[in-house]
């Protein structure tokens, strides 16, 4: 290991040295890029490129090697490595001793025959023909036609090619582009997916007890991490002139996408897809498309808000003010209901265009293999009616009781939310009641009670949401869904259904129920001896706007603070745990291990779809909601891009045809918005 470190250090020093040859600056940049992307990502022989990394930590006072683990307590670890060897993977070990830990990095490499077998088995697609990708931004096309400079457009180097593909077959290898080079024929994302499939299905014990897969071993602490390597550093070289064509893919994404100064530019979606896979690429395409549609909605909301503010100070009779307000609200409701439906229809067009361009139009669940946990726990095997291949099978009659149990848990959690809302109402009444004795203090009492209850409500909503997400994950795992898509759809449905009640119930109460069951003098309606709440003289719209603004904006601020602070705190404690020696040159796998684990897109989609509900269902009460959503999303895109490029380990690239069940949820919210408004 020390010899390799010395070699890496000398190589980097050579890259930093100047040259007097013509075009020397470009040579320096290319040399640096080659070292940062190649040497750090290869086995010590410099020929086999690392496809995946396994990491485990041990007490440095008890050193072990792969050969001695067979008789040690780490038998599961040794058994898994033996399973990987039998599957055809090649591996190499690097051991680093820090002040507190002995960290072992196991490099994994899939040879050509292994890649071919699994590429065919996983229905991967291979290129037949390639040509440049045309511009797909409508605004860019329109501005070019009008000869107007487009400040949002920028030429991103190393743009991927558009390729025609078909399912890979080794028997037809000579028909595919680049088939003569076995090392570059499969992309880094494809190779990482192949190795991940092997890792996810490799056994380390009894298969009948579901002792398979690297994920379970990571949960048990046998391994610390498993991840594909980033394609080099993201920092740009500071010691020589920038040559865009010499940047590695991670540097391109950072320079042209993840920096804050690029907030107004188009996202390089093809580069994102090439580096992170179609699933993440489609998420950022949807987020950018949604943010663009918020711009005209924000302008309408600002106009209505300012018009309402100025109308208050004009000398207009009360009946005319009410009439004008009703017209404004009707206009606002009509515009936003139509905008929500139009947005969804145009996104379907954009999604279909991307799916065709990225060759995932025919990607369906039938192409997906059964989840490893499903395959391990399924009691029988049945023939797939499409592929005619026997696959693990879990009978629906056994799954039904589990699904019903999950529904019961959802109902119980919703009941808890409703009980909490009643408690908030009682709190609001009790806080404002002592001040009701004097008419002059009544408005102030209502304001204090409403604002403080909104803050308490927000904090409890965030806490209950975190608790239920963990519970829903366990319930969905227990229900035994066949594919990853089915699993994610069921998890999404459970979590969103609960979060819908969790976030919107208090707002729905104020909008539609508060003040409707008050009664009349002498016969006031009471609940458990407490008089029912009533609205002030101007109605509940002001209180509704206050409640909505506190919950929506407060949620956005908390989520953004978490996305900024939490990754840095996690990374700090992780580095403290392993006690990194900063005086020594760090290899690529060491630097990537110091990053935090990527947690996927579920939380990102959930945050945005809940926001979509706020700005469609309740926009009449808070016309500035689209503006705050727009400002939040500009920040969100930068935070998410920096998180994926700079702060987290590289995720395994997944294929996807669309945004999944989230579209159906937004379609349902748009229909609810029509009724609500």
Structural description of this entry:
Residues 42-269 form the Anoctamin dimerisation domain. Residues 272-677 form the Anoctamin transmembrane domain. It is found in: Cell membrane; Membrane. This is Anoctamin. GO terms for molecular function: chloride channel activity; protein dimerization activity. It is a single chain. This protein is of the alpha+beta class and 677 residues long. Helices cover 56% and strands 8% of the residues. The chain has helices at residues 2-16, 24-37, 75-86, 112-121, 138-145, 188-201, 214-219, 249-258, 269-276, 278-312, 318-357, 372-377, 396-432, 442-478, 484-512, 541-578, 588-593, 602-617, 625-647, 661-676, and strands at residues 52-58, 90-97, 102-109, 125-132, 161-167, 225-227, 380-383, 390-393, 519-520, 523-524, 526-527, 530-531. The strands form five sheets. The chain has a four-stranded antiparallel beta sheet. β7 and β8 form a beta hairpin. α1 packs antiparallel against α2 and α16 runs parallel beside α19. The longest helix is centred in the middle third of the chain and has 40 residues, at 318-357. The radius of gyration is 29 Å and the shape is globular. The termini are far apart.
State mean pLDDT (0 to 100 scale).
Answer: 79
Shape: globular
Major beta-sheet overview: 4 strands, antiparallel
Structural class: alpha+beta
Query: Could you estimate the helical fraction of the residues in percent?
Result: 55-70%
Q: Give the strand order of the largest sheet, numbering strands 1, 2, ... along the chain.
A: 2-3-1-6
How many runs of DSSP E, i.e. beta strands? 12
For the terminal residues, how far apart are their CA atoms? 67 Å
As residue ranges, the low-confidence spans are 1-36, 315-324
Tell me what portion of residues adopts beta-strand conformation: 5-15%
Protein name: Anoctamin
Membrane topology: Multi-pass membrane protein
Domain Anoctamin transmembrane: 272-677
Main location: membrane
